[in-house]
Amino acid sequence: MCSLGFAKSLGFALIPLAICCIVANVLLFFPNLMLDFVREGHLSMYVWSFMGIGGGGIVIFITAFTFLSMGKCADSCGTESCAMCGSVLASLIGLAGSGYCFIVSALAMVEGPLCLKETWITPFQNDGGKYLFDHKSWSQCNQPAHIVEWNVTLLSILLGLSLIEFLICLVQFISGLVSAVCRPCCYKQQYSLSA
């Protein structure tokens, strides 16, 4: 059961990360905390991909709860290897969800926000993300006010959180595989401690 405790601790670590991803993604829908822009559809297409709600949030919740319930699975199956197979599969699902969140957030960051210049456009779409280092160009966006800062901040949070989620799932994936291969070593440690 040595690897099950480790998986459980990783499951607890994933829960606040998933909650923060969901909150950051929801805030992207409400620039300056106003409802007008979402009602009128003046949001980037990437915001509508639900990268933080779906990929970094719900999918990671599924992964976290799988990690947390592995002890019950091992008790009902009678073997730890069955539970570790479940953790490897859950890790793969978590890797996919966090990877999706990271990739879509990166694409959204490179494209830049949809804003009102003379018409509603994405003014930084073709500059390959150079606008991120040219703060003077951010004033091109008249509405919503401070939309570039809003998007850059929230997308940076999503990038960071999804990267941490990805690393946690990768660690559990490797741990699950190693545990399945080296299970006898784990049992020898338990036997020597109880003797």
TrEMBL record:
Source organism (scientific name): Hemibagrus wyckioides
UniProt cross-references to InterPro entries, sorted A to Z: L6_membrane
Annotated TM spans: 12-34, 46-68, 88-110, 157-182
Alphabetical keyword list: Membrane, Transmembrane, Transmembrane helix
The protein's name: Transmembrane 4 L6 family member 1
Tree of life domain: Eukaryota
Cellular component terms (Gene Ontology): membrane
Chief place of localization: membrane
Subcellular location per the Swiss-Prot or TrEMBL entry: Membrane
Signal peptide (residue range): none
Similarity field: Belongs to the L6 tetraspanin family.
A family per Pfam: L6_membrane
Topology of the protein relative to the lipid bilayer: Multi-pass membrane protein
